[in-house]
Design a protein that fits this description.
alpha/beta
């Protein structure tokens, strides 16, 4: 990224690499948060909690207002079901959709999104899991090894990127570069600004470290949404990462 472009990012009211997680119970609460955040964020994640209420209507509403939308719904079903569901969601105009990083699931989602602008992300290893958790689930690979495997499977399936913790972001980025895919997305939850509470996240990093490690986007929830002034919190993160050049 050139110095001129980096300066442009610093001058913007929001950084397009920051995705704010609207992890609240109702669409009305999400709307109130968006109102408080104002123009300090331009990209929002709608996860399973809102999916269980009125998430799709909210997604369309926010998209119509000019925001980018990340549907973090982690689809996981037989191939034909995932393909059909993805095709319906592709018509919404949303930007990102997660599916579980299983070869059949990712390939089905790629077929369902074909011809649309919807980008598919494979969820590799949840950021709340440790290597001990993986062993308890009968995995022989540790988190970094399992992420590496699933990145390769994502590339084979032809999807656009993965969700991984910041700890594995560099490995995911390097695996894609080796395969000649320079625009591969690495979206990282588990991002905590300096001094923030860890909550239930285990494999975490600061926003700056995540970007320097290879992330293309940062999913940040409670450090923004639980702040007394969400707009100020989002702008502080924008300032914190403005000097970080990626791409």
């Amino acid at each position: 990224m050139s110095e001129a472009v980096n300066n442009d990012l610093a001058d913007r009211p929001f950084d397009p690499r920051v995705i704010c997680a609207l992890d609240v119970p109702t669409a009305d609460e999400a709307r109130a948060l968006v109102e408080r955040i104002g123009n300090a964020v331009g990209f929002y994640k709608i996860g399973l909690q809102l999916f269980a209420s009125d998430g799709m209507a909210l997604a369309r509403e926010l998209k119509a207002s000019g925001a980018q939308i990340f549907l973090d719904w982690k689809l996981h079903d037989i191939g034909v079901t995932v393909e059909k569901a993805t095709a319906v969601l592709a018509e919404s105009g949303c930007d990102l959709l997660t599916v579980h990083a299983r070869p059949q699931v990712m390939a089905a989602a790629a077929r369902g999104a074909a011809g649309s602008d919807l980008k598919i992300l494979g969820v590799t290893v949840l950021t709340s899991l440790t290597d001990e958790d993986l062993k308890a689930d009968d995995h022989t690979l540790n988190a970094q090894q399992l992420v590496g495997l699933r990145v390769q499977q994502a590339l084979d399936a032809g999807i656009h990127g993965v969700v991984s913790s910041p700890v594995e972001a560099a490995a995911a980025r390097e695996a894609a570069r080796i395969r000649g895919v320079d625009d591969f997305l690495v979206v990282t939850p588990g991002v905590r600004p300096l001094g923030a509470d860890l909550n239930d996240q285990m494999r975490i990093a600061s926003p700056e470290a995540a970007l320097l490690g290879g992330a293309t986007h940062l999913v940040i929830g409670r450090p923004i949404t639980a702040a007394s002034d969400p707009r100020a919190a989002a702008r502080a993160i924008t300032r914190e990462i403005a000097r970080v050049c990626t791409g």
